[in-house]
Design brief:
Length: 333
Amino acid sequence: YFRIFCNLSVVLIGPSGLKKTTASDIVVSMLQELELTKIYSEKLTPEALIEAMRDMAQGLVYAPEMSVFLGKARYMEGIIPLITRFMDCPSKWSSGTIMRSTTFLTDVAISCLMCTTPDWFVSNTPADTFGGGFVARNILVVQEDSPRVEPIPRPGDPKLRNKLIADLGHLHSFEGEMVMEHRCDKAYRQWYVEQKEVWKNPESEIMATYYQRKPGHVIRIAMCLHLAEHMTLMMCVECFLRAVEIVDWTEKFLPPMLKKMFKTQAGAEQELILRTIRSVGGVIDHSDLLRKVQYQMNAGQLRGILMSLKDAKQIEERHDNLQHIYIQVGGNQ
């Protein structure tokens, strides 16, 4: 039978200084205070992780700096395939040939929370993690900046923190099988059929892998939302629809970043130009653009890249006696 557990694996992706680790540490500190689950946050080998899970095969893999926790070399060591298998929550698992002596784990349930920058994720995530399913099993939350401007952030309300800790403790004791109420079941089936049509023609092969995992992401988030909001095992349609909105919102930021992972040199140069135009509000003068990228390319190369971007309708060019500007399609005009 097909079973889904409400373990989540999330990767926060954004530039340095966006407070990814700061936000994650707040949540992890609550879990550490409760002492209800293990947190695996050091550099791990497959053997070390298996050994740590001997007495309790559940926990959170926490990588506040994914660049420290993982890498291409560490992927080849086998830690990523192992975590990928544990994300599926096998009821029984054997170490087989990984260790000299066989170790048996039961009721495996692993969640993951990792933080990284777009450049590191693009440069160091091996392409075969898609085929192996690791990246697709994660909910990738990608942001380039934050609208918040707080020079000195104010401390949060301690009463709210204490309430969250109490709620987490109560949720941890919750057991049982969650089912969908009739309206929720009907809404999910309708949504699934409609989405299947969309998934038949993905904008890229990379997104096709993601779409195969999307229903699972939606259900897991809906389970967490419903437990947090209602603390019952009968999932309501409102929580399901909220989960769809959350996943749809994160999804719209994925294609640009995922395409970078398999980008040619020409594609990387196009991305540099788009990022440069976007950084100044979506509109830039030709001379200003040339000055900003003069150390990466010459004027002839820039013209070729701009022509490709215009053909792809990613930018518009306006050239007359008064101005010569480029406008990112969808940006400020």
